Amino acid sequence: xxxxxxxxxxxxxxxxxxxxxxxxxxxxxxxxxxxxxxxxxxxxxxxxxxxxxxxxxxxxxxxxxxxxxxxxxxxxxxxxxxxxxxxxxxxxxxxxxxxxxxxxxxxxxxxxxxxxxxxxxxxxxxxxxxxxxxxxxxxxxxxxxxxxxxxxxxxxxxxxxxxxxxxxxxxxxxxxxxxxxxxxxxxxxxxxxxxxxxxxxxxxxxxxxxxxxxxxxxxxxxxxxxxxxxxxxxxxxxxxxxxxxxxxxxxxxxxxxxxxxxxxxxxxxxxxxxxxxxxxxxxxxxxxxxxxxxxxxxxxxxxxxxxxxxxxxxxxxxxxxxxxxxxxxxxxxxxxxxxxxxxxxxxxxxxxx
Length: 353
Known about the structure:
Blueprint: E1 4-15, E2 18-29, E3 33-37, H1 44-52, E4 59-64, E5 67-68, E6 79-82, H2 94-98, H3 100-104, H4 109-122, H5 138-150, E7 156-160, H6 168-185, E8 189-193, H7 196-202, E9 205-210, E10 213-219, H8 220-225, H9 230-235, E11 239-250, E12 253-258, E13 261-267, E14 276-282, E15 287-290, E16 296-304, E17 308-315, E18 320-326, E19 336-340, E20 346-350
Parallel strand pairs: 3-8, 3-9, 6-7, 7-8, 13-20
Antiparallel strand pairs: 1-2, 1-4, 4-5, 9-10, 11-12, 11-14, 12-13, 14-20, 15-19, 16-17, 16-19, 17-18
């Protein structure tokens, strides 16, 4: 990767007996939107705070723009940050909130005016400069927080779950806007979230975190369609899970004996003949056909979503799965269906992985 802006080298952070970050290595390029995704307690916010300078690593180093900033305070790192709760000063106007970082950097009045005008236009806050936070909508507050993070024209912007407190429709709108800002500015954004829809919508690359470790790092399409660990396979998307024993292996494809049914899936992590295994198949990779077949069941419920529907299917052994498939009139509650999928769309891992 060329034009690296941010590098984390063997970074670790401990809070007593808790390992919040365990030997993390990341490179983020000049124009990348990089997402840190994981459940609560996975270490993603600690990672962001170390990049920002709000926490100091116990091991490793952090490099921004070719400069080792591991022990530098936040205001000397040349970065911007947007917090989950906005953290706007209630007694300051929109303009005063936005230029606060420039005030802390002791910028000239001319620079404050120039940068304020630039960022107000960028985030479409024209005419709101004199308002106070209590006079703003949720979306306007979010734009002020973004403007404050960008007003110093940073080389890198960090965002810590900035859409968590917005309603769904506004969140979808801001996902598009934040991505637009990043593309227009041409600087890297590092975005922390537990919401995989946000990460998949906006990011170029992403890292899945669990218990302070990087489970998998790469382009979002690779992580979604080609998970390399059981955790990533179970975490991304809406996967169905089957447990069985490996009865055959042919190259990279394993066959699992699941209650008398043969399930074919990609082999992962040294899966061997005779191993107990777990197989994950995303709901949209499962296809339904009317009638009875090798694996059949009955539709228990249909959740209509427009062009497609989520079908809750109870299989013959009473296991329930979800299939996201095109909606057809004959696919109604109680109908018998035949369930199929392509082996390359299923991933099998050892049970102990």
